[in-house]
Structures are given as structure tokens and as C-alpha cells.
Amino acid sequence: xxxxxxxxxxxxxxxxxxxxxxxxxxxxxxxxxxxxxxxxxxxxxxxxxxxxxxxxxxxxxxxxxxxxxxxxxxxxxxxxxxxxxxxxxxxxxxxxxxxxxxxxxxxxxxxxxxxxxxxxxxxxxxxxxxxxxxxxxxxxxxxxxxxxxxxxxxxxxxxxxxxxxxxxxxxxxxxxxxxxxxxxxxxxxxxxxxxxxxxxxxxxxxxxxxxxxxxxxxxxxxxxxxxxxxxxxxxxxxxxxxxxxxxxxxxxxxxxxxxxxxxxxxxxxxxxxxxxxxxxxxxxxxxxx
Length: 289
What we know:
Blueprint: H1 3-13, H2 16-40, H3 47-51, E1 53-54, H4 57-62, H5 66-69, H6 77-95, H7 100-124, E2 136-137, H8 141-154, E3 159-162, E4 166-169, H9 170-184, H10 190-211, H11 218-231, H12 247-271, H13 278-287
Antiparallel strand pairs: 1-2, 3-4
């Protein structure tokens, strides 16, 4: 098995967390490799603009898919490195409490919530009025922070060990993160921090709704299961045909079977059923059907 086959097998047999990481990494590598060819040709690279989430309503209306694609899109190496490390770490903990379908659902819905917070924030506050048309959002951060806050609500006292700090409870990690995002709105990454707050908001809502018996991500998991079923290989059905027997052969076989049956019946009449061998009993049973 070559490397490409091993990657396909790992993706197919891996967990939902593995697949999310593979999708993010695969898109990142594809974008960066294609960008090299555009760079060498001296041409402008257009794909980020078509996959990143615009803040402007008019641009968004012409590219509605960006509300989904942006959360799988990265361009800077450190950006995807920290996002995937955070996703892997928190995703592992999340799967200790919830199933894989819920991980995918909260990733997607948290990302959508983060995207909406970003769009609404940029179109609501006067400070952003001059940059709305040129602003774009990309990255998995909002989806990941949704996982973090969901864990903080569901298992607030779950502790993780932070380097140089030691064990810290999940509720404090989520709280500090949210405070830093609020403070960060006035920084150069205002859009990203608004999106983080949107993801954090959805993580809380998701778990609170689960406690009430309502899974807000059920539609997402049902849709993904349907898509998976459409692309799954159909089971192969093997059809065999019996070779037709001509009349002469059929009659000869029938006469042999009848003669054998007569011998067995005669033996029963003379010595009783108990005198039959195992083979004779099987023949009698088959012929009696």
C-alpha cells in the first residue's frame, strides 16, 4: 500500500476528528501549492477571495458558500498549525463526552455562528464602515472555540495540564478565552475576535439545548450521513445460473432417485426406521420434501 492509499484508508476509517483535520490540512496544502503556480506566472491568486467569508452583504449574496468554506480555509502556516493543534486537543476531550456526529455538528454550526457574528458586527458598528467592502474572514478558530465552550458548559471541572501552569479547569480556559476575544475586538484582528465570540456563543447554546432534549445539530448529521451513503460503494450482488438439464438426463436422474427411494422404503418395511444409516435418513428427508 503506497502513501496515498494509506492516507485514503486513514481518512475512511478514521474518526470524525481525524477527518476534520485532514480536510483542513488538505485544503491548506492545495491552496498553497496552487498559489505557487500563480506566483511563478506573475498572476493574481483569486481563490482566497472566492472561499473566504466577506463582510459585505452584497458580496456575500454572490458567494453564499463562503459561510461554510471559510471555516476550513487557512493560508498562513502558523494559523493552521495552532488551529489544528487546538482542534485535536479539544476534539479528543469532546469525543470523551459526546459522539462523533455531535463533533462535526458543533464544528459546522459554531463556524456558521462565528461567521454571522463577524458579518453583523462589521455591518453594525460605525468603526468598521470604511473596511467592510474589503474584509474577509478565514480559519477554523470559531469552530474550535465552540467546542471549547461546549466542554466548559458540559464538563466545567474537567482539568487539562497547561505548560508552565499545570492543571486548569475547562471553565477557566473558556472564560479567559472569551475575555481575551472581547479585548481583542479593538485590535487589528477585530473580525477574527468577533467570530470567536460567535463560536463561543454557539457552544454554550448547543449544550444547553442538548440538556433540554433538543439536538440542534441533528439536521447536519442527517445530511452528512445521507451524503456519505450516496458515495459509499454499493454491495456487489453475484448472480449464478444453473446449467439447464435436458429431458433425457432429467428422466435418468429421476429414475435413479426413485429406485434409491424404493430401496430405503423396503428396508424400513423389513427392519424398521432405526435400521437406516445416516446417509439413508438424509436421502429420505430430502426426497420427502
